[in-house]
């Protein structure tokens, strides 16, 4: 019985970390959806506020991806990527710092692990925003004409 408890605890913590990492890596659409949800909920929309929040978050993510695929300027693409990835890096840093403070005593190692977590979240948000199709005419941020 104790072994089953330990296994379920490890699986539960792993699933929570996976969900948290997924949500932090797309923090901009999540926050847009949450802001729309709370606004609609406080105006009395009821259950329709959930639909509005999901639609707002999806719209923001679609706008980012459309802006990246439609833009032909490398600086515009870099700006769009920074607008998406920098908030995710900041959220990833503080999320990893909070987790590290629960189990690590040394302040130096807490911040080292927080920087590693921020890098992982930033890389994940960059990969999530990249278009799914392959580009034969150049790299992702720069197209050869």
Q: Could you characterize the architecture of this molecule?
A:
Keywords: Membrane, Transmembrane, Transmembrane helix. The chain crosses the membrane at residues 7-40, 46-64, 76-96, 108-127. The chain has 145 residues and is mainly alpha-helical. The chain has one domain (2-129). The protein is built from five helices and no strands. It has helices at residues 2-25, 27-42, 48-70, 74-103, 107-129. α2 (27-42) runs antiparallel to α3 (48-70) and α4 (74-103) packs antiparallel against α5. The longest helix has 30 residues, at 74-103.
Count of structural domains: 1
> Which structural class do the helices and strands define?
mainly alpha
Query: SSE order, as H and E?
Result: HHHHH
- Write down the Rg: 19 Å
β-strand amount: under 5%
Helix count equals 5
Oligomer: single chain
- The general outline is globular
Q: What's the total count of β strands?
A: 0
- Give the termini distance in whole angstroms: 64 Å
| Biggest beta-sheet profile | none
List the uncertain runs.
Answer: none
């Amino acid at each position: 019985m104790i072994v089953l408890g330990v296994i379920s605890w490890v699986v539960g913590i792993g699933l929570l970390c996976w969900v948290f990492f997924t949500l932090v890596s797309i923090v901009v659409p999540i926050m847009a959806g949450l802001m729309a949800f709370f606004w609609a909920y406080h105006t009395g929309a009821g259950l329709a506020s959930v639909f509005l929040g999901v639609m707002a978050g999806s719209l923001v993510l679609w706008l980012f991806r459309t802006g990246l695929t439609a833009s032909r300027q490398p600086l515009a693409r870099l700006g769009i990527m920074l607008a998406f990835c920098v908030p995710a890096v900041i959220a990833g840093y503080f999320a990893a710092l909070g987790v590290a403070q629960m189990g690590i005593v040394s302040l130096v190692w807490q911040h080292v692990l927080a920087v590693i977590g921020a890098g992982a979240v930033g890389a994940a948000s960059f990969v999530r925003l990249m278009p799914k199709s392959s580009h034969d005419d150049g790299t992702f941020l720069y197209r050869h004409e």
